[in-house]
Amino acid sequence: FNIAKKVAEKLKMEWIPVLYNDTLTIDYIFDKTFESYYKYSSEISSIFFFQDYFAVKYLKDKQLVPADSVFIPGHTGDILSGGHISPGQVRNMTPGDISYLLSDKYFNYIKCHKTTKKEIRKKIRSKLTGKNIPAFREMENWEYKERQAKMIINSASVFSFFAYSWIIPFWDNRLVDFFGNLLYEDKLYSKLYRKVLAEEFFSKYDLNFNNELKPSANKYRRQIIKDMVKKYLPAFLVNIFTSKNDPYHYEYFTGLLKKEIRSEYNISLRQNNYYNAYIAQYLASKTKDLVYGS
User: Residue 110 gets which letter from DSSP?
Assistant: First the structure.
């Protein structure tokens, strides 16, 4: 919040703060606008997103931005820059090893039976190129097609829903091609990306604030170790040490969703703050109602 205000001041731009709290989100689940939104955004294929929904709705309802405004979300500089790759992924790996890494990273919200895990990894392998290329390129290629295109980019549908236009500059073909061919050592920890931002853009406009850029390489390594250790800890211990920071008010509005989830989809999560999993469970439950009736 404070950084956004500082950036607006430095660039001499108007700043319109939208604070997520109970007043903004109260009883939203009974709102016809929300019902229309989740059906429109998910299209029974991807989860709908909350992070921008309440803010854009507020701007629309209060007429705080022009009707012909164009929204420019930052999707998806983190993966293009190398923010999703880890040490050791420069070497070639078998499709089996890669499917294990991807399933471990993206399919870990609930505890799965071994048979289910095998099926997930089988589906992942079927989407891999099978080319003799470094593991990080194969993994990024999978994420472009299976996660970014189908889920992350879909989050921008919130702008279309409220009749605004939107563009995603990071997915300009020239940028995608450039970062797609970048050397591993320049992508790891988003090295080149962060350097260019800090020296060529942030410095020019006096925007190099403390803690603005991603964590250092050492902090990133420590986080990898923490994530590895968490897999072997009981859920109650993990939840004790999980950060309670919730700037987007997710705990409150996913709490309302949980009350509407059918029992067969209300599966215990590995961490209480896996909020997107609650959205997926709610959507699965509602989709069944839409298709088969309640």
Answer: S
